[in-house]
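Quick one: co-fold with cytidine-5'-monophosphate.
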Amino acid sequence: MSASLAGRHLVVSAGPTFEDIDPVRFIGNRSSGKMGFAIAAVAAARGARVTLVAGPVHQPTPAGVQRVDVRSAAQMHAAVFAALPCDAYIGAAAVADFTPRAFAAGKLKKTPGQDTLVLELVKTRDILAEVAARAQRPRLVVGFAAETDNVAGYARGKLERKGVDLVCANQVGVGATGFESDDNALLVLGHDGFERALGPAAKSALAGLLLDLVAERIGR
Ligand code: C5P
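Sure, here it is.
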């Protein structure tokens, strides 16, 4: 039987962020939001109050979930912090690491003879690390790590660097799992050498397995 999350508040981030360059162009990524939406749906079905902060995706709102739509990393940061406090924060969004320093009010034009364009980007605020470092910290902070190589190594580094309790690592660009797929496989890493492989399975099934680990950690 799956563990209940009744009486718990979960904040889940999902999807990509779009960082606007000018009125028609942006920097985005290939996150579909499916994993985060699946987590939100299953958590709500298990009785949790769920706030889902969603980047620009085409996904229906899961039943019983309070959804906040955002576009940029800065907006996602504001929406996540507005949703706190919570018992668990699950950062499944693929947040842009960099955003254009300046937004061009008019469409950027190419000029004759121009062969290159230099776009200056500045680092975004790390939502996950800031939630984990907060004085009133959620009991559980879970991050995601999408990597193309050395998946476990990079993910373990993220666990320490970002001060989170669990990191769910997935290898992108391999087989039928990852960003745009309905299936996924996760390697969940925690402190004291905790390591659990989940899947490959449908993202909804994986969400259930991940929420079992969450419930074990924030249960009464
Ligand atoms: O460092 P990297 O972007 O690979 O880390 C991924 C994890 O960090 C994800 O859980 C993502 O939601 C979170 N993140 C964040 N804010 C950022 C960048 C990443 O919350 N600016």
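If it helps, The two ends are 17 Å apart (CA to CA).
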